[in-house]
Amino acid sequence: MLYNINRNSYSKIFNQIPYLCTHCIYTHFTNMKNGINNYLCLLLFATTLLGCSKSIEMTAELSLQAEATTGEGAIWHPERESLFWVDIEGCKLYEYAPERQNCREWTFDRMVSTVVPESDSTVVVALQNQIVRLNLFTNQRTTIAPIPDENGKLRCNDGKCDTEGRLWVGTMGFGAPEGAASLYCVWPDGTVQEKLDEVTISNGIVWSPTNRFMYYNDTPTNRIARYRYDADRAEILFDGVALDIPRGTGSPDGMTIDADGNLWVAQWGGAGVYCYNPYSGELLAKINVPAPNVASCAFGGPNLEWLYITTARAGLSEEQLKQYPLSGSVFVCKPGVKGVRANYFGTQEKKK
Question: Do 39 and 162 fall into the same domain?
Fold first, then answer.
């Protein structure tokens, strides 16, 4: 397994450097320069010995059997040591505690698309056209801000908080009309700012460990865009395409980032989570999932070493559902890297 590599691996690999092609050496040391020198990078380098950069494949196991229409918004709550996720069309929020094999749920009166932690007793949820605070003990719901929905033509989709406690959440149109949606930044005081327009399906969003960049995908583009990020002013500036999703591997949906800055992208229609180096665009690893429509992923567990993956039944025929009966469930894999602690909504000082 990836996480069983030890120091002896280094000597075995570097003893064979004279036999490596120039491209392999360049790729490895570029990764090291960018801080991507963990075990994942080491194993990637080792595979180049067999034929120049082959990606690693792993398989996720079932963690929680469910039948979510669209299981989305996976995020690990550090204080509660639990995974939150939603079923968009089912209008439900779930809290899953893997150690106790316990799953709670809350039902809303409209679609719910994503969730972020705020405290040990509250989370912030994106409903169809509104951002609300949910008290997990009393079930009290408080409106934080409305989100423009063009008279019911749009709904919220994926979103995450930045390091300053602001929620970045995007929208999409029913039927996904091209360019009808936006990406918004919601401040803790309820101020809503539009950051990007002419979006079609706003989806995965993460920040680099250095906080210099924001990575974001508008699903139909089949690309992960990179933006320079100004944390003080909540400003972004397009800095190019970090990577193009390979054809035949599905479309980018939710995503997360590991401590070394590699992107883990849930790919709808691609039956897996794919790990990429955002500097080179290279595919480093794939986690196979026994469900075609993979919607989101998040690192969790005490040391953020487990990758939890949500899936969907939406878009599958009856025949496909028979072939993939676990679609809509939550899966898990230990890929050998660590994730990044989730950002909370609100002031960050007390959350660190």
Answer: no
Q: Give the contacts of 129 (CB within 8 A, at least 6 positions apart).
A: 110, 146, 147, 148, 149, 152, 154, 155, 156
Statement to judge: residues 7 and 99 lie in one domain: no
What phi, psi does 98 have (nearest 5°)? -60, -40
Same domain, yes or no: 103 and 162:
yes
- What are the tens digits of pLDDT across the range 25-83? 434 444 444 444 555 555 554 444 344 457 899 999 999 999 999 999 999 999 999 99
One domain for residues 23 and 136: no
Task: Give the whole-angstrom CA distance, residue 247 versus residue 241.
Answer: 16
**What 8-state DSSP symbol labels residue 322?**
H
Global pTM value: 0.85
Q: Please indicate, yes or no, whether residues 87 and 211 belong to a single structural domain of this protein.
A: yes
Number of domains in the chain: 2
CA separation for the pair 344, 350 (Å, rounded): 10
| Helical packing angle, 39-47 and 22-33, nearest 10° | 170
Asked if residue 46 and residue 67 are part of one domain, the reply reads no
Q: Are residues 120 and 206 in the same domain?
A: yes
pLDDT in tens, 223-262: 999 999 999 999 999 999 999 999 999 999 999 999 999 9
Say what the pLDDT of residue 55 is.
Answer: 83
* Beta carbons of 58 and 286 less than 8 angstroms apart: yes
The backbone torsions φ and ψ at residue 164, rounded to the nearest 5 degrees and listed phi first, read -95, 5
The residue segments making up the domain with residue 286 are 58-351
- Is the pLDDT confidence value at 22 over 50? no
Separation between Cα atoms, residue 224 and residue 221, nearest integer Å? 8
